[in-house]
Write a structure and sequence with these properties.
This protein is an alpha/beta fold and 259 residues long. It is built from nine helices and ten strands. Bound molecules: adenosine-5'-diphosphate (ADP) and magnesium ion (MG).
Length: 259
Amino acid sequence: MITDDVVIKTEGLTKTFEKGKKREVIALNRVDLEITRGEVFGLLGTNGAGKTTLIRVLVGLLTPTEGKAYVLGKDVTEDIDYIRQRVGLLPQEAGIYDRLTARENLIYYGGLYGIPEEELNSRADNLLEIVGLKEKEDYQVKGFSGGMKRKVLVARALVIEPEILFLDEPTTAIDTLGARVVRNMLKEISSQQKRTVILTTHDLTEVKELCDRVGILNEGKLVAIGKPSELEEKFRAANLEEVFTGLVTGEGVYGDASL
Ligand SMILES: Nc1ncnc2c1ncn2[C@@H]1O[C@H](COP(=O)(O)OP(=O)(O)O)[C@@H](O)[C@H]1O
Ligand SMILES: [Mg+2]
């Protein structure tokens, strides 16, 4: 049963990729996951753990090999258009239109979703305010720092007023200061708007600052899920770093690693 409050549900979700003859990579290995409306959920895992693959399946960019994935109550293999209209995505390698201004980037993107101009303008006003780019809204993005570009991209993902916002490594590949700025903005967004946010990261500080719950992926398997404090307790670890290191190296975890 899927209740209204469960906005994402996966059951035995598996995704494999062919890697040459006979070899295959199991990017997602029987993942069972439930995410509730309004949560800020962090997906943690080292490179290659399956984080991006999971997001790509949930937004319909990849089809599951086995198992099920439901977003907003709809099966991703059946109702992807319904889902796409209602979720925002900041891809890991997001492109931005450098020659457009910050504001034009939002307006252009929102236009693709058929949002009327007047509505779009008022949303853009509000979002540019929230992300702290109001004064820079009419500057071409090409002169922006990495952190500022990332803010434009987050605002762009939000302009369609998605019920769920997926952010794939929103703070990776920008400098420390830029990452802080983006984190603060995400805090602001998640506190002001009752919106489900799913973000992937390698950064445990980020998780502690932002996330209500966290799921740890390792080699395609969801090896732990819960509130950061619950995981520390469950694995009898002093902090999330210890939980994480224990789970991905197979050392130093005294609790039961199975779900
Ligand atoms: N399009 C693809 N084709 C082949 N292999 C892929 C593809 N996308 C991801 N993979 C593989 O799936 C695994 C998980 O990748 P990914 O989901 O990108 O991990 P993460 O985002 O956690 O770093 C990796 O082994 C990766 O090489
Ligand atoms: Mg990734």
